[in-house]
Write a structure and sequence with these properties.
The chain is of the alpha/beta class. 35% of the residues lie in helices and 26% in strands. The two termini are 41 Å apart.
Length: 387
């Protein structure tokens, strides 16, 4: 039995801790904050993530806390016209082995936290890991305040602003030039809870979907820096304008990522989630890729050979997440064009074959040998969801 240390108690860190404990390892999770929790609002989980949650026995709880939308809808923010959609019903679930779920970030975090407790993870609060030293087959985490923890491996899941990443990669977060305002409010009577809607505008976009069984409306407004929230959406259609008063005005989030890193592992220290591959939000894959990381690392470590496991984890996951990072950047550029670019984008979207999966198979389909087992575990769950 290995001793695993996890630095960071966000969604990625909890997923890593749970999967390692589920595999039979002793796990200690070290969280910097005095309390466990997540800041933010809604979260979209594609079937590449929900397949894993099904295999972990957690998907039913996630579905109960969230909403199962019937389609993703893309609209022009200026005219309101529908450009294209992605149906999320029976054919989609049959193809990918699991549903598309939207859930409040804090609800998913709470489900993973409870799963960690039930699996016997030692959850330590108020202990931030400042550096890690590895010697041979052991790793030591040195924490703020002087605490020291030893294990066979340290998994750094300390987020986009990861302090531990600097031990492997000399880089800084990159600012995309866009900021996000978020907000939730009681669901309006006229809102369709079956849809996740993204409105594309020049240098801005707006996302809406229901949360918590249709009780809440989640909204995200993303626009280029240099304007305030209201002026950024001048000229947008009535549906977008109606949503602006419900956004939080006292806080915003800069849209940051980093260049893909080739090195995720040094000795017995490994990066995971946003610490390894922070990405822009346009593919809704940040949390999904962290769950994939956690599953892959646990699968590779099942044999107890950590050196081999860490090398395989990096080899499998780094190219996959680099593609997601790059595609998210490109997708954001497509969303925000104006002029001739907007006309061409709209025509392309409106004329695409809506029954085609050519743009989603690489993202939602099977990606590695070790993740295929989760798909088999989730078949019954996906069938039950459709019934």
């Amino acid at each position: 039995m290995s001793e695993v240390l996890v630095a960071g108690g966000g969604i990625g860190g909890l997923a890593a801790a749970f999967t390692q404990a589920r595999a039979g390892h002793r796990v200690r999770l070290l969280e910097r904050a005095q309390e466990f929790g997540e800041v933010g609002a809604g979260l979209q989980l594609g079937p590449n993530a929900t397949r894993l949650l099904a295999g972990w026995g957690l998907l039913d709880r996630v579905i109960a806390a969230g909403v199962l939308p019937e389609r993703l809808v893309f609209r022009d923010a200026l005219t309101g016209e529908e450009l294209t959609d992605l149906p999320l019903g029976e054919d989609f679930q049959d193809r990918y082995g699991a549903p598309y779920v939207v859930v409040h970030r804090s609800d998913l975090h709470g489900i993973l936290l409870e799963a960690c407790r039930a699996a016997g993870v030692d959850l330590v609060r108020g202990t931030g890991v400042e550096r890690v030293e590895t010697r041979g087959e052991r790793a030591t985490a040195y924490c703020a305040g002087g605490a020291v923890h030893d294990g066979d491996v340290v998994i750094a899941a300390d987020g986009l602003q990861s302090g531990l990443r600097g031990q492997l990669v000399a880089d800084e977060p990159l600012d995309s030039g866009f900021i996000a305002h978020r907000g939730t409010c009681p669901l309006p009577d006229d809102f369709d809870t079956t849809e996740v809607v993204a409105w594309f505008g020049p240098d801005c976009h707006f996302v809406q979907y229901a949360l918590r069984g249709g009780k809440l409306l989640n909204q995200v407004a993303v626009f280029r820096r240099g304007r305030d929230l209201d002026s950024a959406y001048e000229g947008c259609c009535e549906q977008v304008q109606k949503g602006l008063p419900y956004l939080w005005r006292d806080r915003n989030w800069p849209m940051l990522d980093r260049e893909p890193a080739r090195t995720w592992v040094r000795g017995r220290l490994a990066l995971l989630g946003d610490a390894a591959h922070p990405m822009l939000q346009y593919l809704a894959q940040g949390a999904c890729q962290a769950l994939e990381d956690a599953h892959e690392l646990a699968a590779q470590a099942a044999g107890g050979d950590w050196d081999r496991a860490l090398a395989a984890y990096q080899e499998i996951r780094a190219p996959r997440t680099a593609r997601v990072q790059a595609t998210a950047r490109l997708w954001g550029d497509i969303w925000h064009v104006d002029g001739v670019g907007r006309i061409l984008r709209n025509e392309l979207f409106q004329t695409r074959d809506r029954s085609s999966y050519v743009y989603t198979d690489w993202l939602y389909g099977e990606t590695t040998v070790t993740t295929r087992s989760a798909a088999a575990d989730s078949t019954a769950t996906a069938s039950a969801v459709r019934r």
